[in-house]
Description:
The complex is a heterodimer of chains A (620) and B (405).
Chain A: H1 2-32, H2 39-56, H3 59-86, H4 97-116, E1 121-122, E2 132-135, E3 138-141, H5 142-164, H6 166-176, H7 178-183, H8 188-209, E4 215-216, H9 220-235, H10 240-260, H11 268-279, H12 309-328, H13 331-356, H14 365-382, H15 386-408, H16 413-433, H17 435-438, E5 444-445, H18 456-479, H19 481-491, H20 493-498, H21 503-529, E6 531-532, H22 539-552, H23 559-574, H24 580-594, H25 598-609, H26 616-619
Antiparallel strand pairs in A: 1-4, 2-3, 5-6
Chain B: H1 3-28, E1 31-37, H2 43-62, E2 71-77, H3 82-94, E3 98-103, H4 107-120, E4 124-126, E5 143-145, H5 150-162, E6 168-172, H6 177-193, E7 198-203, H7 212-222, E8 226-229, H8 233-245, E9 253-260, H9 262-265, E10 277-280, H10 292-304, H11 310-329, H12 334-341, E11 345-348, E12 351-354, E13 366-374, E14 377-386, H13 395-401
Parallel strand pairs in B: 1-2, 1-3, 3-4, 4-5, 6-7, 6-8, 8-9, 9-10
Antiparallel strand pairs in B: 10-13, 11-12, 13-14
Helix pairs in contact in B: 2-11, 3-4, 5-6, 7-8, 11-12
Transmembrane segments (chain A): 6-29, 41-57, 63-86, 98-118, 145-162, 190-212, 307-326, 388-409, 416-435, 455-474, 508-527, 547-567, 579-596
InterPro entries (chain A): ABC_transp_permease, BCAA_transport_permease, LivM-like
Organism (chain A): Puniceibacterium antarcticum
Amino acid sequence: MGLFFAQLLTGLANAGALFMVASGLSLIFGVTRIVNFAHGSFYMLGAYVGYTLMQVLPGVVGFWGAVLLAGIIVGLIGVIVEICVLRPVYSAPELFQLVATFGVILVIQDLTLMIWGAEDLLGPRAPGLKGIVRIMDEPVPQYDLALIAITPFVAFALWYLITKTRVGILVRAATQDREMVGALGVNQSWLFTGVFFLGCALAGLGGAVQLPKGGADLLMDFNILTSVFVVVVIGGMGSLPGAYLAAVIISVLNVFGVSYMPKSTLVLMFLVMVVVLMFRPFGLFGREEVAGEHGQVGEPERPIKPAGLKIRLLVAAALVLLGLIPVMGSNFAVVLVTDILIFCLFAASLQFMLGMGGLVSFGHAAFFGGGAYVAALFVTYAHTPMELALILAPLGAGLAAVLIGWVCLRSTGVYFAMLTLAFAQLLWSLVFQWGDITGGDDGLVNIWPSAWASSNMVFFYLTLVICAGGILLLRHAAHSPFGYALRAARDSSRQAEAMGINTKRIQWVAFAFAGAMAGVAGGLFVFSKGSVFPNELEIARSFDALIVVFLGGVKTLSGGWVGGASFEATKDYLTRFEYWRLALGLLIIAVVILAPEGIVGSLRKLGERTGILNNAEDKR
Amino acid sequence: MQRKTFLKSLIGAALLASTAPAAFAQEGEPIKIGEINHYKRMAAFAEPYKKGIELALEEINAEGGVLGRPLEFIFRDDQGDPGEAIKIAEELMTRDGAVMLTGSILSNVGLAISSVAGEKKWVYLAAEPLADAVTWSAGNAYTFRLRTSTYMQAAMLAEAAAKTDAVKYATIAPNYAYGKDAVAAFKEVLTKLKPDVEFVAEQWPALFKIDSGAEVQALERAKPDAIYNVTFGTDLAKFVRDGNTRGLFDGRTVYGLLSGEPEYLEPLGGEAPEGWVVTGYPWYDFTEADGANKVFVDAYQAKWNETPKIGSLVGYMAAESIAAAITKAGSTETEAIRAAFEGLPVETPVGQITYREIDNQATMGAFVGKTALKDGAGVMVDWTYLDGADYLPSDEEVKKLRPAD
Lengths: 620, 405
């Protein structure tokens, strides 16, 4: 009984920092609709700033002063980010801002490394709270008790701010209907900036307050990000009590998981999330998202049309040029372009789902990595030849997409995105954990193409044919009746239903189709690399694809592969330099600000303005 | 000048001009080695490693280089991504003119490079990766490994553990391949040496996401006599802090794999655990009696003005091994280098090591000792250097573990 109680206390103490970070993310999302990927970075900054301050400020007052100051400083950094990076892109298509926050992550990572160095910093202990208290004969650290006491206080202060003050009223109003708030004469920009300050300050506070339980290191930004997203989604986006309850549930369950199912550490959180969202598609305290904004933000979207003659000729010429690479270019150029082509197909498959279907997936790597693993497993255990494995890869990935899609499509919007993330993570941990079959993180090695395709050049042509074909097929599908129905379901599911379109089924098919195409890319990937590791199923891989789709232009047909090609080529070039993450991050932010419609969208506009391309309107 | 002789000399000059640069290039052009690592993702480990390499290069080239040519490393960042590492390997070998590859800290990246090296017939020296698979289950003729493997280090600790009275053991290891290998090897060797041991708890925190309070409570609940720890980095720091606070380590011996390495011990500062039996690198204790060890540590501190880590030593030894292999090969052809690595003896700071012919594993050993606090910092005391050759399974077992070349 004593142990049980002590474990409960450990869970409650762990919930503290998690709640602070999560509530910040929740607030920011609620008001600005920005999915802030950089939230983990602000948490990391909080830890580093807090650490530095604690070295300077002495004693008990110094310690708690440092925690508070760290929150404020990080909040101010958040304000800078908001004003410089996010404000210019509020009118961009929905979720586009997450690309900008991804750039911010890279910049903060390199700056932190520059300022504080590479070595992990062990957090100082809280003065006066270094010992333990015996409760029912079990040792409980004093600082844990302090955290348990502080967290409800922070939660209460937030609750008061949100429910009882004028600022809170505005914040709540903006969460429900931000256009109306703007129409009523509230200065939205400053409201957004203020909320961003508060959210980032909370993240910084979370980072500083956990110092005595851990420290500051360069991996903590990504390490907390997934748990925070999970907490926010379980609690319901935008709901503070929800975030608190979810943080407690996750932390307490985790403590018992550690004791009674020690191997569950990787999956438990995601299982809880899947279960909760199955029964409450909008989280515990979340409300159904109001049926979209009043119309779309930004410019109205143009109807897609088949490519004109000029574009077709251009693409044909580009394909011929690509085909000449083995003849003209070096061996490495062949390998590099093979890599890029595979990534382009992966990105294009996500683009189809995201752009045409409006289905934002945070877990598309499940199908890329899934396809890769299907091929690798067949080769390793059944000695399947490459040709057959390349066909089985999309079948396997497509089948996985059918199953995952069936569950995920019960939710919509950000909840849908988080469910896909959860499933990708479940698949990842299955592969990671099931070492006897999948090799765990030692992966599956020695999976090489058949003899006829083993030279880099032949494999390049194989990849070129399959990837270009795949991308054209996706494009073709967008122009087919199926593509029209999919877009109808995206733009107005009610009207589409009224016209007799089974929107859920159409989306389900699109999800499976995109998954299968990602599987094709995954199959090719295995044979080009000769090995596969769980990295291909990681969240980072899903994010890569997501970023390039937005960078390329989500509302265009070709954004996926154009973004993929430019991003991969740039990255290949930049990683040769010392501070490449800083450079890449700044570049991403610059593209986001200068080309809010993505590369393709902005180029098209430029082309029309200069008269190289005909405007769609003129043709009618 | 007669016309004939003029023509002759002209032709001669032209010939000379056309051949000279080629010969010249052979003479003075550096021998390039491709080094792929996670310089950003694992900066705390990769930086000392790189500095070790640079120190060795400086020394090698001051003495005239290798085969009369300077030795040069091309350092490339792979972001800790196996796919990326393979692409870079291709570029280094086919475009940049590297004669062989080395690098990687993470085992999965090491295995990825090893796989492509075996397929494309490039020599790869896996300097840092610890996974047993690198030289055993996924081994190939072109991959060699320098560092003391997981199995060897675990076997050293198991041997120390077998000498005590402790019977009930609990283990805590990060939930991924390295952690699992480390626990399996420790269990295997300890059970062989002392059949009555019992493993009462196994904890598997997620890598770098440890919930240390809960892990400590779970370990305490099992009431073990001794604990075997494989966690490292931030996980270790949190585990040690919570374990100290809650008194988990009182009256128990803890065996810590790698816990004595400066990379992990230094960040703990004054909170470093006392009395743990660990593998590590006690560079601060070296005296003249330790010979080459001391020389290396002094040279490193003189050049970089900072203290060495275990990564510094590994980087230094990797460059030394490569220089020795190319010298022995007498050429920069892949097959010659590969053949030279087989059975290659290398003089290093820790003594002579040999790249075994049977599995391409080097016999580098490890320092095993007890942790203690000295001037508010964790150190290793009562340490000895154990030769890696004594902690490998028998040749028959190794042959079974390794696929036929």
